[in-house]
Structure formats: structure tokens, C-alpha cells
């Protein structure tokens, strides 16, 4: 039964790529050595849509159990980069990838790798909240487990409560679990989607502007949630909102025109950026 | 028209009364057979068009479906006559059902494709991002979301072929008695109406009118059902 689920234990990365950052402060770690191994080691990654290059030659390491924010103007390739981390960009026909993405040492683009298996370990939350319209709140949360073959009622109920609690939604919906997922407010729907994503127990959560369509209060809740989730998950978040990147991330990557311009700790990017373009973007001189 | 119309077999020429019970039942049997053939092929074709096919394969398939949609229904009858009736040396309910079923395929295929394309991509992405396989995503998420639309398409196709006479002329052929085996000729309302309407007897003319009324009412109710289904159609967030 549980075989179909993802085991929570992350395998130790066999080959340790150079950590870009020397000051990785792991929030929870039993093993200091393991903590320095990046969750993702991206090297020379380029993605094309047809003939059009979306990102070019991106090399960066993403730390485990930390929040990495990706900022940049529209069309700079940040969403493509995020999607290339769990192969979601392949839904667009005629995409092509060069370079390597190692996730805990495994090349997710290796021939024979099933994108479905990759996505089971690397979950995703989208800009537009998208609870399934035919399902209740409860069904929405456990749908991932169910479709992956978990039938045990008790396991599903446990996962339902646990996931909703982790998404800070349990108290608001615990009496309405049978109501349609679409009946919730926008912010609640987004947290429902986060609950749905963590119910399958991934190791990473990729978030594509998760708060872009929400009001400030709902946004604050999502940000609190991100701070809470990072204790257990590696989080990569794409955001248009630089304040948001500043508030809730440990590391920040700045993309421009499909290239990674700068990648450093959030504090450094926002106080003492190394590149002129980063500084211009952050101070609002362009973008 | 009275209750006998629904319960009695046709009476011999000259005997007043009788009904079309065998034709009414036969029509439903034929529609059942047609659905058995038309629904799976049509729905799977629609899924292929909406979810899998490459642009070139799709435009070819769509073109073929549209041409088949425009083929006069008597041609279907003749084709099945040539392929099935002659080969198996006999008119049969199977042949009639096959003719109607094949007529349904392009209709169902195109409506299924359309409603599947209406399902926002966000749902496909959400399911795939949960590590759900492509096929399960399509069946459990996309088709479930579009289920009302798919059912609507099927019912409309059934309503469309329910009144077809021409494809049945050389296939199901008609039968004045109860049909005991699907490999024998079977009666159908449109056929019975046709043969009664061209007969020289007043009583049969009245029966033809009654049959026409039953047929129209049946089709009307299918359409009402479709209306009811589509009223609560979920289109998802915008």
C-alpha cells in the first residue's frame, strides 16, 4: 500500500556538487554533512520552446530545507526554470532541454526517468488556485494519494487532517470537509492546493507566484505558511513581488532575459547586490 | 392511439387495431447496440484529439470526422449492407446497430473533443504535479470535470440517430413480430412509420402518425434531459 507513496527519507546525495553558498544555515538537520549537499544541483541548464530559448546556461545549487526565491521581470524565464525542476514545462509541445538537473544526486532528465515519478517527489503550487471542481474539500486533499493507489481509509483520513493542519486550513474547514473545494475563498483555495500538494509527501514544493492573485491578508497567511513549511520542505518560489522575496526567502536568484544574473543569500541580494543589473531591478530602476 | 399501441404487435392487413410494441422495443435495442459501438470509439477518439494527437494527425482526423458527419445516412446503410448483410447473408439487428453506431462516432468524437478542450489546463497541471500519471489525469480529472458535456454529446448523438430510417432499410430491415435474436431482422419505429405511411390503408396511416408522435416525444425528452444536464454545467474558475 504505502509502497506507492514517496518515502520521506531523502537519500543522501552520492555526488556532492560544489555548494555555491558557504553560509548555508540548515534549519533542521540531523546530519551536518548532508545539509551541505544541495537539494538541486543545476548545471548549464538551457530550455527551448521550439526555436525560442527560454532560459540559457543556468547553473545554481538549491539548498535543502530553505526557501529560495526567484525574481526577475516578466518573461525572464523564472517560471520556465521552476517548471524545469520537475519537468512540468514538458507539457508544452516541442520543448528541448540541455544541461543537467540533479535532484539529490539523481539526474531527473536521465533517459528512462519517468516524469511522473519526479513530480511525485517534487510538488508544485500554481499562481491560480485550482482545486478540482468536481471534488469536495476532503477529496481534493487526498486525491493525489488516491490516484496513486492508496485505498486505506484510515491512512487517507490521517493524511487529510495532517495536510490541512500543515496548510493552516484545518480549523477553518474542519466542519465543511464535504463542501465543494470551489466554495472556499481565494486564499483558502490556495492553501487547499498547498494541502493537496503536501498530502502526497513530496520533498520539495515549487511555488509559481502562489500569492499573486491574493489580497494582502491572504498573502500574509501564505507567507507564514511558507516559513512554517520550510522546516520540512525545500521550497522554491517564483515571485513578482520583491518585498515578498525579501520577507520569506533565505536565498534569492535574479533572472533576466533567460539568464541567471545573480544568486546569493537574500540579505546580500537586497543589501549589497554584486551585479549592477540586480541593483537596478531591486531599486526599481527597471523591470 | 391507445394503450394497445404500446403493447400490441401489428395486426395483419385488414384487421383494425394492433400496435407497434415490437418497433418501440426494437428501436431501443438498436439504440443500445449503436451506443455500444459508437460511445467507446467516439469518446476515445475525442480523448485522442483533445489530449494526445499531434497537430497534423489531429487536423486529418478532424477532417475525416467532419466528412463522415456529412455523409448522407443512406450511404451508411448501403455500406453496412455491402460489408455485413451480404457477408453474413441476412438482415440483422447487429447490422442496424452497427450502421447507427458508426454514424454516432464522428458526432460523439467532436463533442467530446470540444468539452475536453474546455477543461482549464490548470487542472491537468495540478494533477500531473501530484505525480499522477497522464492517463489517470485524463480519466479521473479531466473527463470527470467534463463528464456532463460528454454525456450531453452522447445523448445528442443518440437523439440524432434515433430518428434515422435510411440506414436501417438495408440493415435491420424491419420485422412484424418480436425479435428473438439480435442476428435476425428487427423492427424499429422509423422503419415502421415509413412502411405504414406508404401503405394504402387508413388504419395504418393513423398508426404511422401515432408512431411519429412517439418518436418525436422520445427525442424531445432526450433533448430535455440534455438541457437539464447542461444547466448545472461546471466550467471552473476563470
Short description:
Chain A contains eleven helices and ten strands.
The helix/strand class of chain B is mainly alpha
Distance between the termini of chain A: 50 Å
Greatest chain-chain interface? A-B, 28 and 25 residues
Number of strands of chain A: 10
Radius of gyration of chain B: 21 Å
**Total number of helices of chain B:** 11
What is the level 1 CATH name of chain B? Mainly Alpha
How would you classify the helix and strand content of chain A by structural class?
alpha/beta
Provide the CATH topology of one domain in chain A: Rossmann fold
CATH architecture of one domain in chain A: 3-Layer(aba) Sandwich
How big a fraction of the residues of chain A is strand?
Answer: 15-25%
Mean pLDDT level of chain B? 88
How much is the radius of gyration of chain A in Å? Answer: 19 Å
How many individual domains of chain B?
A: 1
Tell me about the largest β-sheet of chain A.
6 strands, mixed
Number of strands of chain B: 0
User: Which ranges of chain B are low-confidence, i.e. pLDDT below 50, for 5 or more consecutive residues?
Assistant: 234-238
How much β-strand is present in the residues of chain B?
under 5%
Write down the overall mean pLDDT of chain A: 84
What is the fold's blueprint, element by element?
The complex is a heterodimer of chains A (287) and B (238).
Chain A: H1 32-36, E1 40-49, E2 52-62, E3 67-71, H2 78-84, E4 95-103, E5 106-107, H3 115-121, E6 122-125, H4 137-147, H5 153-166, H6 170-173, H7 186-199, E7 204-208, H8 216-229, E8 234-238, H9 242-248, E9 251-256, E10 259-265, H10 266-271, H11 276-282
Chain B: H1 3-7, H2 21-52, H3 55-70, H4 73-85, H5 93-118, H6 121-129, H7 134-145, H8 147-162, H9 166-169, H10 189-197, H11 202-231
Helix pairs in contact in B: 2-5, 2-8, 2-10, 3-5, 4-5, 5-8, 6-7, 8-11, 10-11
